[in-house]
Design a protein that fits this description.
Helices cover about 50% and strands about 15% of the residues. It is built from 5 helices and 5 strands.
Length: about 140
């Protein structure tokens, strides 16, 4: 028997993965501080092609790029969604409108993530590799 690196069907990102990531990230932020309030709204934009996401903090919603999501779905789940949700939470908890200390605390303390200001294609590809490693059925057996 030889092990061959293969990919199971469950490796692909689905809408359920996205929804679970969104809800899980917000639950962690709410557990960090109830001041985070209700779940932010979500809006998709086909026009956003250079910006992966944007937090509309006063409106309490997150806007995400459709084209970039299709290109880097794993990166959105592992980094972009938590990043934007942390902006909404930082505004509600600390009145921090940007990438200040409140946002960094939400990213690091509540979500357990490194607070990166900007996304890069290279980091999104790293997330793809990390996503593959996180999946249970990484190997297919050839008999």
């Amino acid at each position: 028997m030889r092990k061959i690196l293969g990919y199971s069907r469950g490796m692909r990102v689905t809408n359920a993965h996205f929804q679970n990531a969104f809800i899980d990230a917000w639950a962690r932020l709410r557990a960090y501080s109830p001041k985070a309030g209700p779940v932010p709204g979500l809006e998709w934009s086909k026009r956003m092609t250079r910006t992966a996401g944007m937090a509309c903090i006063e409106e309490g919603k997150v806007r995400l790029s459709v084209p970039l999501y299709h290109q880097y779905p794993e990166g959105f789940i592992l980094e972009i969604v938590p990043h934007e949700l942390a902006h909404v939470a930082a505004w509600r908890i600390f009145q921090d409108p940007g990438h200040g200390e409140g946002w960094k605390r939400c990213m690091h303390d509540a979500l357990g993530l490194q607070p990166h200001r900007l996304w890069t294609g290279a980091r999104m590809l790293q997330h793809r590799r990390r996503w593959v490693e996180m999946q249970e059925s990484k190997f297919l057996l050839e008999i």
